[in-house]
Amino acid sequence: MTRTTRIYVQINIPNGAVSKDENNAEIVVKLGKHLGVDIEHQQTDACHRMLSRSKEFPPILLVKFCSKEMKNVLLSAKKKTRNLESTDIGMNASSRMVYLNEHLSPNNRILFKKTMELKQHGFKYVWTKDCMILVRKNEAASVKHIATNEDLQQLLQENK
């Protein structure tokens, strides 16, 4: 089975209103500018709203970049900017937090949610990079890749 790396980024704004006349591509350009990343329209392949599974949340803004590098540059810049609010990028009258995440496959999203529970078992770091789920118990421990539920169960058994 081959695994392809997704070059999508999810932009989540909980409780954020969606304007009928919003320009999604322009939102991405403004987001990049605020984060110090020069994003041109040609660097995005697609940019649209996608309904969330829960009616409690507004549709997410899904951006497909033309290159994995641009996706990683944007996500890296967001890590350096702790608090990003919707008003920073010209959205919403009321300020809401903006979250950027890699867009994971449904199976990986479920696995990532389960893997996040490792923090209750003493793991300090759980993250994704290029759609791979990675964990590390502490600064001195090696990085482990979690690809399946079996990997997760084995790691739990090893750390009992």
Assign an overall shape: elongated
CATH architectural name of the largest domain: 2-Layer Sandwich
**β-strand amount:** 15-25%
**Which CATH first-tier class of the largest domain would you pick?**
Alpha Beta
- Name the CATH homologous superfamily of the largest domain: RRM (RNA recognition motif) domain
Low-confidence stretches: none
User: Describe the biggest sheet?
Assistant: 4 strands, antiparallel
Total of domains: 2
Protein name: FP protein C-terminal domain-containing protein
InterPro entries: FP_C
Which SSEs are present, and which pair or pack?
Blueprint: E1 8-12, H1 24-35, E2 44-50, E3 60-65, H2 68-80, E4 99-102, H3 106-116, E5 125-129, E6 132-136, E7 144-146, H4 149-158
InterPro entries: FP_C
Organism: Dryococelus australis
Pfam families: Baculo_FP_2nd
Explain this structure.
- With 160 residues, the protein is an alpha+beta fold.
- The protein folds into two domains: 8-102, RRM (RNA recognition motif) domain (Alpha-Beta Plaits), CATH 3.30.70.330; 106-158, no CATH class.
- Helix content is 29%, strand content 22%.
- It has four helices and seven strands, in the order βαββαβαβββα.
- It has a four-stranded antiparallel β-sheet with strand order 2-3-1-4, covered by helices on one side. The chain has a three-stranded antiparallel β-sheet with strand order 5-6-7.
- A hairpin with a 2-residue loop joins strand 5 (125-129) and strand 6 (132-136).
- The chain starts with 7 loop residues before the first strand and ends with a helix.
- The model has no long low-confidence stretch (mean pLDDT 85).
